[in-house]
C-alpha cells in the first residue's frame, strides 16, 4: 500500500461547491483571486468542475458582449 502520510489533509476537507467554483473562476478570470483561495482550488477543487464553469463563464461573456455591441449598433444614429 502507498504511504499517504506526506499528502496534505485535502481528502478530509470538503471539496468546494459549485458556487465557490463560480466565485473562484470569476476572481481568477478578472485577476483578483487571493492566494489562499488559489491554493484551496489547486489542492481540493475538482479540475473538471473548474474547467466546466470557466467555459460557461467565457461563453456567457462572449454572448453578452455580442448582444451589447448589437444593441449599441442598433441604437446608433444612421
UniProtKB/TrEMBL annotation:
<keyword id="KW-0472">Membrane</keyword>
<keyword id="KW-0812">Transmembrane</keyword>
<keyword id="KW-1133">Transmembrane helix</keyword>
<dbReference type="Pfam" id="PF11174">
    <property type="entry name" value="DUF2970"/>
</dbReference>
<dbReference type="InterPro" id="IPR021344">
    <property type="entry name" value="DUF2970"/>
</dbReference>
<protein>
    <recommendedName>
        <fullName>DUF2970 domain-containing protein</fullName>
    </recommendedName>
</protein>
<feature type="transmembrane region" description="Helical">
    <location>
        <begin position="50"/>
        <end position="73"/>
    </location>
</feature>
Amino acid at each position: 500500500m502507498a504511504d499517504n502520510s506526506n499528502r496534505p489533509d485535502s481528502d478530509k476537507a470538503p471539496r468546494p461547491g459549485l458556487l465557490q467554483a463560480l466565485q473562484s473562476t470569476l476572481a481568477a478570470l478578472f485577476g483578483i483571486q487571493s492566494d489562499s483561495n488559489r491554493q484551496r482550488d489547486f489542492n481540493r477543487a475538482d479540475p473538471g468542475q473548474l474547467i466546466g464553469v470557466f467555459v460557461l463563464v467565457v461563453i456567457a461573456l462572449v454572448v453578452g458582449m455580442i448582444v451589447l455591441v448589437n444593441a449599441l449598433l442598433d441604437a446608433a444614429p444612421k
